[in-house]
Amino acid sequence: MATLCKLCAALFAVWHLPSYGNNLPQALITIIPARLVLNYLFKKTDLIWVTWVVHVSFDIISFLPILLK
What we know:
Helix content is 81%, strand content 0%. It has helices at 2-15, 24-45, 48-67. It has 3 helices and no strands. With 69 residues, it is an all-alpha fold.
């Protein structure tokens, strides 16, 4: 099962390649760890909204400095 989670995280990173200017190493290094955390949270809670809240919170914290310029 752990291998499947890692494969899903890698595929999720590749799916986001256009967002990272097709920079594969940057997408893999950035997204795989985040996706593994979200997968872990979902498996522990069995609630998709938990992963949604964490994802949205991370996006807001990450992009807030850019949006406030």
